[in-house]
Amino acid sequence: MSLRDIANEITASSFDPKTDAVATAAGLPAGDYTTVVSEISHRVFDSGWDAFNVTFEVVEGEHAGQKENVNISFAEKAKSGKAIPQFILERNMKLVMKLGAFLGVEITPDDFADNETDTHENLYQKLRGHEGVAMILKVTVRENKKDPSNPYTSYDLDEAEQPEELPADDPFASDTASQDATEPPVVDDSELPFD
Fold first, then answer.
1. Closest alpha carbon to 132 in 38, 33, 35, 34
2. Pick from 117, 105, 139: which is nearest to 52 by CA?
3. Any idea what DSSP says for residue 23?
4. What is the DSSP annotation of 63-119?
């Protein structure tokens, strides 16, 4: 898409340059998306805040190729020192347990350490290497009355049909199948890709 195409889309949308905010949520809009887990990490930000991170890449539909970074924190206190509500911690634990189930890894109470940094690292160590699994990412967006330009986004997961693995084709299979396994394959000069 060219810059002009992008500008035409903005002009055709309901964007009002006199009154609308420039910054909008850059993530996926609310909906269900067939995705693949493309990255699992323990992210530490310049501010010192850290989180367990999962990157989902959309593989079908209008948003194919778009990535959604989901940072999941198990901090028990906010920067202000106020306690994080238990329902938020429970929701985050359920999301990680569900993610583990779809990746084929059981998440147990022992995976949640006494502090958030160790918990984020434990989850990263346990789930890394299981990328590439397809699942449905359910995105819910709701209004943030205190900061309307920064809506609340929550996530849920559902199973997705896994893509079939394609067999690797051996270009010499038909030629070598009839030969003795101890003999090297015979390649005619006409089969070479250069002169």
1. 38
2. 117
3. -
4. TTT-EEEEEE---SB-TTSPBPPHHHHHHHHHHHHHHHHHHT----GGGS-SSHHHH
Our CA dihedral for 47, 48, 52, 57, rounded to 10 degrees, sits at 30
What is d(CA 118, CA 85) in angstroms, rounded to the nearest whole number? 20
User: Whole-angstrom Cα distance, residue 38 to residue 74?
Assistant: 22
State the DSSP code for 48.
S
- Render 13-67 in DSSP notation, one character per residue: TT--TTTS-S----SPPSEEEEEEEEEEEEEE-TTS-EEEEEEEEE-SSTTTT-E
Q: Is 125 helix (H, G, I), strand (E, B) or coil?
A: helix
Instruction: Name which of 48-52, 85-89, 96-100, 164-168 the model is least confident about.
Output: 164-168
> Residue 103: which residues within 8 A CB-CB, separation 6 or more?
37, 127, 130, 133
Instruction: Specify the pLDDT at position 170.
Output: 58
148 or 108: which leads in pLDDT: 108
pTM: 0.72
**Predicted confidence (pLDDT) at residue 181 exceeds the cutoff of 70:** no
Question: Is the Cβ–Cβ distance between 126 and 101 less than 8 Å?
Answer: no
Tokens 């909906």 correspond to 31
For residue 176, the model assigns a pLDDT of: 47
Please count the other Cβ atoms lying within 10 Å of the Cβ belonging to residue 42.
17
Report the distance separating Cα 155 and Cα 195, nearest Å.
Answer: 56
State both tokens at 69. 């970074």
